[in-house]
Design a protein that fits this description.
Blueprint: H1 2-21, E1 23-25, E2 27-37, E3 53-59, E4 62-69, E5 72-79, E6 84-91, E7 94-100, H2 102-108, E8 116-126, E9 129-137, E10 143-149, E11 152-154, E12 169-177, E13 180-190, E14 207-210, H3 211-215
Parallel strand pairs: 1-11, 7-14
Antiparallel strand pairs: 2-3, 2-13, 3-4, 4-5, 5-6, 6-7, 8-9, 9-10, 10-12, 12-13
Amino acid sequence: MRLYHIILFIFCTISSVASFSQKNLSEGSLVYNISVETGSTKPKMADMLDGATTTVYLKGSQSRTEIISGLGSEATIYNATTGSGVILKDYSAQKLMITLTPEDWSKNNKKYDGITFENTGETAVIAGFKCKKAIAKLKDGSSFTVYYTTEINVTNKDYDYQFKTLPGLAVQYEMQNDKMKVKFTLSKINYSIVPASKFEIPKSGYRVLTYEETRNK
């Protein structure tokens, strides 16, 4: 019995260490740097995205994802509890608000339905995190590379539809669009309290369109 208790103690100790090694993120922010490769030496509009940032604000079931670049800014506010959200676009003095019902949200992210992640067995340390390399495969036949860590557990899995089934936090990922390659790399995690105002829907200053109206244009 003494041996049994020693083994049990060791097992519980290892389990305890493993649980403490993973940090939960239920409120705070994630900042990603964006780099773009266009495959051309000629200046293009896409080059203005180079050096842009994406910031994800999280607070319980609410999320706000902001992209700020030389072209302007765009923010997506989403409530995982209600399933609804809005997209705010601010480009060249034009300010648009696109409203999304739960059904609209699903349609807007339909591309990522059924996405799978296949581990390659490769690892890397990125932004100070131990990461695993995986290939994300979409049902349309396309794919992209993602490095993720299990050291951080984001409690709101719905903040980014494409990664809701990823078994960890995406630290770096690349996406290809024709000859343009866009890379997102995590640069900072902030565990500070996020003001509730970050998730408030503007009541004025934007031209409001429904999701269906944008699809019919």
